[in-house]
Amino acid sequence: MSASAHSALSDIEIQRALGALPGWSRKGDAICKSYHFATFPAGIAFLAMVADVAEQLQHHPDIDVRYTRVQFMLSTHDAGGVTSKDFELAHKIEALAAA
User: Per mean pLDDT, which range of 6-10, 40-44, 86-90 is the poorest?
Assistant: First the structure.
């Protein structure tokens, strides 16, 4: 991606990057995906793993937990939109989900 980690990406850059993230979509100034789990504790355990990664990256998602569904909404608020930092975290969330 050509933009720096703190610059909002263009619409085309966002669309291209979403192509490598099945199930992720753009909603306004964020990229989002919901994950579904068999049980509430399984979803919370996954959320705890994501929290550790987000803390390491110093980039924290907005999270919505609804029983067995956990939705992540990634946006770089100080850049006013989606940046490469959001895609870096999204790829790490996907890696955790695939593990």
Answer: 6-10
The proportion of the chain whose per-residue pLDDT surpasses 90, expressed as a percent, equals: 89
- Kindly give the pairing relationship between strand 62-66 and strand 69-74: antiparallel
- What average pLDDT does the chain have? 93
CA distances from 82 to 38, 49, 53, 58, 91 (A): 30, 22, 18, 15, 14
What are the two backbone dihedrals, phi and then psi, of residue 62, each rounded to the nearest 5 degrees? -85, 135
Tell me if residue 81 falls in helix, strand or coil: strand
Tokens of 17: 């990057």
Q: Please provide the size of the chain in residues.
A: 99
